[in-house]
Structure prediction request, 224 residues.
Amino acid sequence: DTAVSQTPKYLVTQMGNDKSIKCEQNLGHDTMYWYKQDSKKFLKIMFSYNNKELIINETVPNRFSPKSPDKAHLNLHINSLELGDSAVYFCASSPNGPAYEQYFGPGTRLTVT
Amino acid sequence: SQQGEEDPQALSIQEGENATMNCSYKTSINNLQWYRQNSGRGLVHLILIRSNEREKHSGRLRVTLDTSKKSSSLLITASRAADTASYFCATGSNSGYALNFGKGTSLLVTP
Prediction:
């Protein structure tokens, strides 16, 4: 009965590879997010989707492409991985925007070697 | 862009003591939220306070909000070892669809 799930939990890959992280929420929420947490624990919004439509696309390299096949899923595809992409990526959801609490997934620790 | 800034960066106390963390932000908000992150885990929502509220309680948590000073505080009373975690404040972004997080306060509660 996990609310927000992400797969995989750990991802180790080499520079130049393409990888995807999947996120699913079973809370019936309208809004989903991707955040990146760096080694200093700073959390930064990357993308936000509301009802499958892209709402926010912060200054993120276009190697990162989110895809929302339906309201319950928001996947993150990363092309041509670079060392600086190493971080923990969190998916989150909320009923409708940040006026409500957000529910976070357990995170995906990406290590690029 | 970063909105919240927590203070102190790190806090170490003994079980039973109170822990106070502060958060300052820069622009107008409609709510401010506090989250906890245990090591290696995702963030867990603790409390949300709206801009027209000054104080809110939830169990051992007490949050205050001063919109004139653009600051908030989180008080954890009677701390337990299980409270050891990082605590983040977060505010709504200008676009209204994401939270801007501070850098967090790392709390260590020793038995």
